[in-house]
Design brief:
This protein is α/β, with parallel strands linked by helices. The protein is built from 10 helices and 8 strands. The chain has a domain of 168 residues: Alpha-Beta Barrel (TIM Barrel), CATH 3.20.20.140. Strands 7-6-5-4-3-2-1-8 form an 8-stranded mixed β-sheet, sandwiched between helices.
């Protein structure tokens, strides 16, 4: 029995709808999946996940947090997606995301890239949580670039000429929000943070698990974070960080998985 606890849908920046994710996960023979869209639970609402009986679905979410020099993402598992406080915070985050894209479109226009905000919304389709990948697609559509990676490198990466920071909660705020929504805060892909002192600080702040298994982690990192999780009695999770992007590993669900036994520990 296998699982994948880090999956994005078209509710944020994934390329497959929640229904398409469910279909592909079942075809791949997965026993459990977690939908972890950025700053939204609309994919779970669209899927009506509590009624699904063909596969176990863990309700989740992924937050970006506010640290000045490092990118820190925190996953929330087993959350109550109808929690009033959680939904209020998500509405604020979604509004700020849209305003951010408007500002970035204005910057791009000033830089000579003729992009229309309404077209970005059309490209995002049903996405609640609009982000830079949607803007990158608009630039590619106009013929300015050939791939998303180039767009980010030239324009949209942090400190890039068209970059605008978006409103974020602090790690402590996110951890407490997830806990108050009945969930379990897990530090996403700690190897990408680039500073294990921050990882240890976040554990002290109240993180309850580490995403040990991630496509970007080396064997050395997996062993290191397993040891840290053991030393601090943390839950161990993992997932493919699946977006269904053709050039990004993995390109299909079921290629990168974890043991379902880890899910059962999470559920307990």
């Amino acid at each position: 029995m296998t699982a994948d606890l880090h999956i994005h849908t078209t509710a944020s920046d994934g390329h497959l709808s929640p229904q398409e994710i469910l279909k592909q996960a079942i075809e791949a023979g997965l026993s459990y999946i977690a939908i972890t869209d950025h700053d939204t639970v609309d994919g779970l609402l669209e899927l009506n996940y509590t009624k699904v009986t063909t596969i176990g679905i863990i309700p989740g979410i992924e937050f970006s947090t506010d640290l000045p020099t490092n990118e820190v993402h925190i996953l929330g598992y087993q959350i109550d997606i109808n929690n009033f406080e959680l939904r209020n915070h998500l509405e604020v985050l979604v509004t700020h995301r849209r305003n951010r894209i408007k500002e970035m479109v204005e910057k791009l226009n000033h830089l000579g890239y003729n992009i229309d905000y309404l077209r970005v919304l059309e490209i995002a389709q049903q996405a609640t949580s609009i982000g830079r990948p949607h803007l990158a697609k608009a630039l590619i559509e106009k013929g300015y670039f050939s791939n998303v990676s180039d767009v980010f490198t030239r324009l949209l990466d942090k400190n890039g000429p068209a970059y605008v920071p978006h409103y974020k909660l602090t790690p402590l705020q996110v951890i407490n929000l997830i806990k108050r929504a009945g969930g379990i805060p897990v530090l996403a892909h700690p190897g990408l943070i680039g500073d294990d002192n921050i990882v240890r600080d976040l554990i002290a702040t109240g993180i309850l698990g580490l995403e040990v298994y991630h496509p970007t982690h080396t064997e050395f990192q997996v062993e290191k974070y397993l040891n840290i999780a053991t030393d601090h009695q943390l839950l161990v999770t993992g997932g493919s960080d699946f977006h269904a992007v053709p050039t990004r590993f993995p390109e299909k669900l079921g290629v990168f998985t974890i043991s379902a036994s880890l899910v059962k520990k999470l559920q307990k």
